[in-house]
Amino acid sequence: MSHPQNATVFLKDKARAKWHDDTLWIVREKRDATIHLIPEWEQLRELASQIKDHTLSKLDYYLEELEKNATANGIKVHWAENAEEHNQIIGKILEEKKCKAIVKSKSILTEECHLNPFLEERGIEVVDTDLGERIIQFLKQPPSHIVMPAIHLKKSDISDIFHEKLHTEKGNVDPVYLTHAARQHLREKFLQAKVAITGVNFAIAETGEFVVCTNEGNADMGVHLADTHIACMGIEKLIPRRKDLGVFLRLLARSATGQSITNYNSHFRSPSPGKELHLILVNNGRTKQLAREKFRNSLKCIRCGACMNTCPIYRRSGGFSYGSTVPGPIGSILSPGIDLKKYSTLPFASTLCGSCTDVCPVKINIHEQLYEWRQEITKAQGSSLKGLSMKLANGIFTSPLAYKISGKMMRASLKTLPNSVIYNPLNAWGKGRNLPELPTESFKDWYKKNRNEQ
Amino acid sequence: MSSKASILAAIKGLNMKEKPLPEIPVFDVAPNLVEAYTLALNSNKGTVLTKKELEVLITESSFQKIYSSSPTFNQFTNCELPQHPSDFADLDLAIIEGQFASAENAAIWLDDSNLDLRAIPFITAHLVIVIKKENIVGNMHEAYERIGSTNSGFGVFIAGPSKTADIEQSLVIGAHGAMSLKVVIL
User: Fold this and answer.
1) What sequence ranges are listed for the domain 4Fe-4S ferredoxin-type (chain A) (predicted)?
2) Which structural domains are found in chain A, ordered by start?
3) Do A191 and B86 touch (CB under 8 A)?
């Protein structure tokens, strides 16, 4: 399925699509309101960008530093070349612990590695503990947004699934009631779990510690009650110094939701006495992206989701339309690096307006990279239909006569073209759009007629 | 080749030119830190109380199980510290001391030296953190300067009660962790 096809499905429910668009724009506005309270905001973005650029330029050094310091702290460090190896490492730890149920808190990486189906096939119960993630887990859906995983759902949907799974009152759509029902349900899971899995927001090479940020407190509920904590991170999550966190924690939540900080920002350095702490460093294609100079700095991403909230296409097509673990503008520059063919329509799911680049807290030039990917994809596809029309256009602009004739032809044909041609499935942009009204004469004709009248 | 070796070799093979690591400058902070702190905490849905106000609140409340590791409020403790944190699943109120706080976002720093069990501030139904007025700093840069290179196994910035907006963006307090956060500034 391509992005335009998926977007069509999303847009069938017009009222819901409008709600989605408006709601995400409100989040964008909250972000704007909060950053205007920080006079040094632009300086912070520049610092964050430089810190990440620096780290990526010495990533091998900092990874080894992290391993050395974390190991000295009592953390067991593992390396995984790909998703399969990541899952195997977790599977092995759980086997050693004879663990049949785990609690997990928001981790886009474990989603990327398809950890849940891997564990479930082995008879292990996986409970996603972030409220939004638990909701979509009940519905067997992937997240549609990296910060607000259930943003595509209405409270009536959530009420229905909670009625089915948690036996809440039928038709009770009160968010407080539903949240507290989930609290009771998940508390039982937290109290029973022996192993907790979390993602990582930042890992610090200098101190060998890592930081996990949540608002719900689900990561902490999981890991402090369990005997074993397994944290999974992509190798790009590194920063050099502890004090760099000052920059990133000021940027992350403000960019994500407009809060000044997430309510829980936990720094894990060594396990509690008698407990175990594992850290898995995962590559899964990241070194390949690092090797692509034009796309290297997409690895600076701190997963705030600001580019999604501001994107006119994301807001109007929904996270599922991208068909990738990370949707939206940042997903559209990360995913083609993983599978160019599968994600070939994503870099075209953009107006190239540049709003994503403007809000990015680490200054990734997202819209420029979207444009670069379009060129890579066009090259890879050879002379596709689009390529042919580009060649035709090229011919027209190099010959003045062809240009003159083509203008007349275009005005004539656009008037007479049946709608089925303009609004056919090959032309995704025809949907929901009207052609402009055509002038009756060309500028050239108009100039000829009018130049002597002055 | 091990995965570690292959990942490191792939990066080394790129021969990337080192880019500079910037120093973090000093930024201006709010002139009145207590006032700024109180505002920030309110917007995170927490509240500032005086010592007296907290004493009245506890006396008039129906909290069954209270644990205070703050000497200032020791008299309210009515239970023992359990072996396993899950035995605190029915804890109604925890009172703990924070080391310092950042005025720009209300975040309070606690580490193992403040936490008799790491789970306490999360598993308790209601949380009170006690800080000293002179330990409020301006922003997160100053906060990390205060942390310096201290060597605690666990540390956390807590800035509000547990909350979520995962159901249609409606803010609900008390997702998994503490359903309220009160901060006493001494």
Assistant:
1) 292-312
2) 38-284 (3.40.50.10420), 385-450 (no CATH)
3) yes
